[in-house]
Design goal:
alpha+beta, Beta-Lactamase, Helix Hairpins, 2 domains, five-stranded antiparallel sheet, 7 helices, HAMP_dom, methylation, transmembrane, transmembrane helix
Length: 516
């Protein structure tokens, strides 16, 4: 039901009740006052006629009594119902025909003036002492019966007139109240309802304001609602700008993560090639060891085997140099991977700050909606959605950061391992060069072949163990780079999810028509 109608109806009922109470109270007071005034008038008239007939009663002049009473009775015929005259001994002297009499017992023995025998709303019975002469000697009594019928008639007329006047006043008051309430509540209600209808119909243009200016409570309410809408507009504009920045950063992050994934994939391929090369080198070293051992069976075979071993060692040196160079490149790539990981960590810190700021802004918008009560319920839903998106963004950022920490740790271990591999490769090259020199000495100094051959066999044993360790480390590095590649793919998926969330936030904020 319309609030204005309820207010007008309630006010009308209250005013009607108040008017009826005032009318009844005023009528009762007027009737009492009129009754008392009539009573005083009856007493005064009774005393006057009593003084006029006292001498005639003393001398029992009935005609004189009747002559004085007749004009009095005619003058007060509407109020005076009857008159009876008694002597002081109780003997009846005169009365109006049809008038009821009283007994002597009803008259007080010490009556000095006028006594009220009975009094009701309809009649008043009086007994007056009749005194005559200078000594005011008691000569008799006069009984009068007065009627209040004319008072009741006047009261009825007054009540009717008061009812007519009160009805006119009530109608005028209700009309003025209707116009006043319509002027006081109609304009602000129309402004409030118009703005809320536009906002609830989908036209969420936050540039709209309530155009009602007054110093009353509705004017203050309009100012506070306008301030709330302005604050909400500023907050949502800030969130909208932040979401745009988050979307841009998410795109940059996705691009960087994809580049990182490509680099890790390339590094993975190179490491697998290094593992294959190390296995080949191990096989070569094993062949050298077999040939050196065979050379000890005969001097000629030793020389021939030494020459063949020298050639193979030269090839092994070249291969080890190439392996060392590849290992050095892998070390540089791993170091670049660590640098890129730190950059991505910095970008994630920026994203986390933006997500925290977005969450704070959404919390402020929810507080402002809660202050608005029912009118702010729609804004509270939007603020809650924005806060949910901010929490998802923060969660995704934490997951990406955790992956990056693991990736950085793996990259550090990879760099350390590759550095060790590089040192082993250099040591292997030096050993191979030394072995080549020894074989050259074997060729030039055949007499020392057996002694040097023993040294070569021992050296080859050490070299084979080093190559085995190098291949094992390269295998571990291969497993770690596989894990790194898998984590880089997960990071790519997380960055895409972050970009999608930022796009969804941007779409949700578009409902507020912020460009209007």
């Amino acid at each position: 039901m319309n609030i204005r109608r309820i207010l007008i109806a309630g006010t009308s009922v209250l005013i009607a009740i108040a008017m009826i109470i005032i009318l009844i109270t005023t009528w009762n007071i007027s009737m009492k006052a009129l009754h008392e005034s009539s009573k005083k008038s009856f007493l005064q008239a009774t005393n006057t006629i009593a003084e006029g007939i006292a001498t005639s009663v003393r001398f029992k002049k009935l005609k004189a009594v009747e002559g004085k009473l007749t004009p009095f009775i005619e003058e007060n015929q509407d109020a005076l119902a009857g008159v009876s005259i008694y002597l002081k001994d109780g003997q009846h002297l005169y009365d109006v025909p049809g008038q009821s009499r009283i007994t002597a017992e009803q008259i007080s023995a010490d009556l000095k003036s006028t006594q009220i025998l009975s009094e009701t709303d309809e009649q008043l019975s009086l007994v007056t002492a009749l005194r005559s002469g200078k000594k005011a000697t008691l000569v008799g009594y006069m009984y009068t019966n007065w009627q209040f019928s004319f008072v009741q008639q006047v009261g009825s007329d007054m009540l009717q007139q008061a009812f007519i006047i009160g009805s006119l006043v009530l109608i005028g008051t209700l009309l003025l109240m209707f116009l006043f309430i319509r002027s006081l509540l109609g304009v602000p209600f129309d402004n409030f309802i118009g703005l809320t209808r536009k906002l609830s119909s989908g036209d969420c243009n936050l540039a709209q304001r309530i155009t009602y200016h007054s110093n009353n409570e509705f004017g203050q309410l309009a100012q506070y609602i306008n301030k709330f809408i302005a604050t909400l507009e500023t907050s949502i504009n800030t969130i909208h700008s932040s979401s745009t920045k988050v979307a841009g950063i998410a795109n940059d992050l996705e691009s960087n993560v994809e580049n990182l994934e490509n680099q890790v994939s390339h590094q993975r391929t190179e490491i697998k090639d290094s593992v294959h090369l190390g296995e080949n080198l191990q096989q070569s070293v094993e062949e050298v060891k077999l040939k050196v051992e065979t050379a000890s069976s005969s001097l000629e075979e030793a020389v021939s085997s030494a020459q063949t071993g020298q050639q193979q060692l030269n090839q092994a040196v070249d291969q080890n140099l190439e392996l060392a160079e590849n290992t050095r490149k892998s070390f540089q790539v791993a170091d670049e991977l660590s640098t890129q990981t730190e950059k991505v960590t910095t970008i994630l810190e920026i994203i986390r700050n933006i997500a925290d700021q977005t969450n704070l802004l959404a919390l402020n918008a929810a507080i402002e909606a809660a202050r608005a009560g029912e009118n702010g319920r729609g804004f509270a839903v939007v603020a809650d959605e924005v806060r949910t998106l901010a929490e998802k963004t923060s969660t995704s950022t934490d997951q990406v950061e955790e992956i990056l920490v693991h990736l950085r740790r793996s990259s550090t271990e990879l760099t350390k391992t590759m550095k060790q591999g590089l040192e082993h490769s250099d040591a292997c090259v030096e050993n191979l060069q030394l072995t080549s020199s020894q074989i050259h000495e074997v060729i030039t100094k055949i007499e020392y072949t057996n002694t040097l051959n023993s040294d070569v066999v021992e050296t080859n044993h050490n070299q084979y163990g080093s190559m085995t360790g190098l291949i094992d480390k390269l295998g571990i590095l291969d497993e770690q780079i596989d894990e790194m590649f898998s984590e880089s793919q997960n990071m790519t998926n997380y960055s895409k999810a972050l970009r999608n969330n930022a796009g969804q936030m941007h779409s949700n904020l578009a409902v507020f028509n912020l460009n209007k």
